[in-house]
Design brief:
By secondary structure, the chain is α/β, with parallel strands linked by helices. The chain has helices spanning about 1-10, 10-40, 45-50, 75-90, 100-105, 165-170, and strands spanning about 55-60, 60, 65-70, 70-75, 90-95, 115. The model has no long low-confidence stretch (mean pLDDT about 85).
Amino acid sequence: MNRLRGWLLRHDRIVRRAIASVGLLLLALDLVLQWKALHPYDPSLQRVQETGILRVGLDPTYPPFSVFAGESIIGLDVDLAEAIAARLGARVQLVPLGIDGLYDALKTGQADVLISALTVDPWRMSDVIYTRSYIDVGQVIVKRAGASYLRLRDLAGQAVSVEYGSAADEVA
């Protein structure tokens, strides 16, 4: 025992470095495991590359972003989806949904991505990854000419129309 103590005292610097190195290695391993838990493997990109099809979930009731034009869906969201698919060497398959079904379609694999009028929902951040917004329009009230709604109480007794499941629905 005295021999070991003597060796440790003579090589104190080496022992401290070894302990610090093991500690840093364990910390790095812990950080990697935490990152992997927060970012599970998503096979969507691999599936798009294998099939050549990017399935895009969108709500086609929100012109000028996406709207039915006869049998087709047109709009800015569709143009954006086609540009992304072109960069991936794929073609777009639009998956029209109500705004209240978009996240479920992503979660169940019906869509690879969502390109629609979505606001960042902090409650969903553990399940989805948001890009930076490509447009910020905020919420507005559209009223008849001559009507005055300056305060919330001015809306008392008035009919308010919002899209079910939208950010406006939450506010209303």
